[in-house]
């Protein structure tokens, strides 16, 4: 069973006395290193797979295709094993996130994060020391286990440790460090690509740094009050609550956590409850959002940015440096979400970003379809125009469909299905991340510049979803979503027998 996700703000969370303590900030930063760990791996893959020394050792046929004068620009990197190097991690993450949910419940959030760090370190050692493709893939699977355990435990830990009124901004710190990890990986790749023969080993080995910080740092942080209480350690839970809130008067919040935990424990079959008619609106929105997030095309840019820029005719150094630029834009733009999500609301950010991403993808597709043919070199001016458009695209994603995907999935489910619903959303995200990572280079080979129009069409669909079907959840207590959001929505109210019949978005 997935962990009980309890947030004690059901109608009164903002009234609980609490300070933003040094303990909470420290715990959040340490836990968010799980995001840095995840982001570094996303960013490192594309850079490593564009390095000649790496290709010569593990994918010599791809190396030869890359340097053939008459080889199709769009098909240079089309290889299923090369794509499996990137995508195998996410397949392992899907399986291991289920095991992680059991560990979260039985052993606590801290212990699960420590296990994430150990799995990740094991994968780093195998990858950095790899002598054949099988050792390389085995390392990727262990990294996937680390990602699965980390992504299940870290957002939950931050949600439970943070005071209700600061939870939105602190939660997005996880996504912020994901973007920092991607940027850090791009910078590392730029410098290690200049090291003859073994530069790729340094790139893969440095991934152990955030894992070590997460593992050692988790020994210094407190367990969440909710985790302690749900495991029967009531007195320890009360002490942890006082320590993290910075005040002595925590009885009201403590009683609310105990009540919510008891209700959650009384639900014996949360996954079966997802099949109820009244559960369909949050299940659909929570899972389809994860599908849409992947079909924006963002991960192919983050995974394969250096490969993509080399395809456009930029040299190896220029391609890696361009990936650094997009990584920097990604990190800085995420700050807009940190400070703007509770001011502008979820839907406004999503709709605005969909328009911006659609325009960037369409114009990029037009330029590449006109100027990048099978065997020519695109004029440098247009290559840099496409780089600019990709930055515009990344900018919009970073303050909307990226961080809000996790935030919305964690807040739209009622308590009785929150456990199962959140796990369904996480699993959907990992499955479609795997599909896109495994298929992209083949799609690029067959669709050529049309790949940009493919993702633009999906952005049009998801923008329409945000306009017509996604309700606004800004400022709504998490345990009042059914009454104040779903039952009052013009479309979703029909799934509730006692819903207000007046359509209201």
Describe the protein.
The structure is a single chain. This protein is mainly alpha-helical and 505 residues long. Helices cover 73% and strands 0% of the residues. It contains 22 helices and no strands. It has helices at residues 22-48, 52-58, 60-67, 80-107, 109-128, 133-161, 167-192, 199-205, 208-217, 225-230, 234-245, 251-266, 270-273, 280-294, 298-311, 316-344, 346-371, 380-398, 403-411, 415-447, 450-468, 481-484. Helix 5 packs antiparallel against helix 6. It is globular. 57% of the residues are buried. The model is unreliable at 1-14 and 499-505 (pLDDT under 50).
How big is the Rg? 23 Å
What is the mean predicted local confidence, pLDDT?
82
Q: State the separation between the terminal residues, measured CA to CA.
A: 34 Å
Structural class: mainly alpha
The sequence of SSEs as H and E is: HHHHHHHHHHHHHHHHHHHHHH
Total number of beta strands: 0
Low-confidence stretches: 1-14, 499-505
The major sheet is characterized as: none
Shape: globular
What portion of residues is helical?
over 70%
Strand content: under 5%
Quickly count the helices.
22
């Amino acid at each position: 069973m997935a962990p009980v996700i309890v947030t004690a703000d059901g109608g009164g969370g903002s009234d609980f006395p609490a300070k933003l303590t040094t303990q909470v900030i420290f715990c959040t930063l340490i836990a968010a290193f799980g995001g840095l760990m995840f982001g570094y791996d996303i960013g490192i893959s594309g850079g490593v797979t564009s390095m000649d020394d790496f290709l010569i050792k593990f994918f010599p046929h791809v190396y030869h295709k890359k340097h053939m004068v008459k080889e199709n620009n769009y098909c240079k990197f089309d290889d299923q094993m090369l794509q499996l190097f990137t995508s195998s991690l996410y397949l392992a993450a899907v399986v291991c996130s289920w095991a992680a949910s059991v560990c979260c419940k039985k052993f606590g959030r801290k212990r699960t994060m420590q296990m994430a760090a150990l799995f990740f370190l094991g994968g780093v050692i195998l990858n950095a020391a790899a002598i054949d493709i099988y050792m390389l893939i085995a390392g990727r699977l262990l990294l996937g286990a680390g990602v699965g355990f980390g992504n299940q435990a870290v957002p939950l830990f931050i949600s439970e440790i943070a005071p209700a009124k600061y939870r939105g901004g602190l939660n997005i710190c996880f996504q912020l460090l994901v973007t920092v990890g991607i940027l850090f990986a791009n910078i590392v790749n730029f410098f290690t690509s200049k090291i003859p023969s073994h530069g790729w080993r340094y790139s893969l080995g440095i991934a152990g740094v955030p894992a070590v910080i997460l593992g050692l740092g988790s020994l210094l942080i407190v367990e969440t009050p909710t985790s302690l209480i749900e495991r029967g350690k009531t007195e320890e839970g009360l002490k942890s609550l006082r320590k993290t809130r910075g005040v002595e008067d925590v009885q009201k919040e403590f009683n609310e956590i105990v009540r919510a935990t008891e209700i959650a424990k009384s639900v014996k079959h949360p996954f079966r409850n997802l099949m109820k008619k009244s559960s369909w609106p949050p299940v659909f929105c929570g899972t389809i959002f994860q599908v849409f997030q992947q079909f924006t095309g963002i991960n192919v840019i983050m995974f394969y940015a250096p490969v993509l820029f080399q395809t456009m005719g930029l040299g190896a150094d220029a391609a890696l440096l361009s990936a650094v630029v997009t990584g920097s834009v990604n990190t800085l733009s995420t700050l807009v979400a940190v400070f703007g999500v509770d001011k502008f609301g979820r839907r406004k950010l999503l709709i605005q970003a969909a328009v911006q991403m659609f325009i960037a993808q369409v114009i990029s597709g037009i330029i590449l379809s006109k100027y990048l043919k099978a065997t020519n070199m695109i004029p440098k001016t247009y290559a840099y125009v496409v780089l600019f458009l990709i930055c515009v695209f990344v900018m919009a994603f970073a303050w909307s469909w990226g961080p809000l995907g996790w935030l919305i999935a964690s807040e739209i489910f009622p308590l009785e299905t929150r456990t199962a619903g959140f796990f369904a959303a996480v699993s959907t995200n990992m499955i479609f991340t795997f599909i896109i990572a495994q298929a992209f280079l083949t799609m690029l080979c067959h669709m050529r510049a049309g790949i940009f129009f493919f993702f633009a069409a999906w952005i049009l669909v998801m923008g329409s979803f945000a306009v017509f079907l996604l309700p606004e959840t800004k400022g709504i207590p998490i345990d009042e979503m059914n009454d104040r959001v779903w039952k009052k929505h013009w479309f979703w109210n029909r799934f509730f027998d006692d819903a207000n019949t007046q359509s209201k978005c």
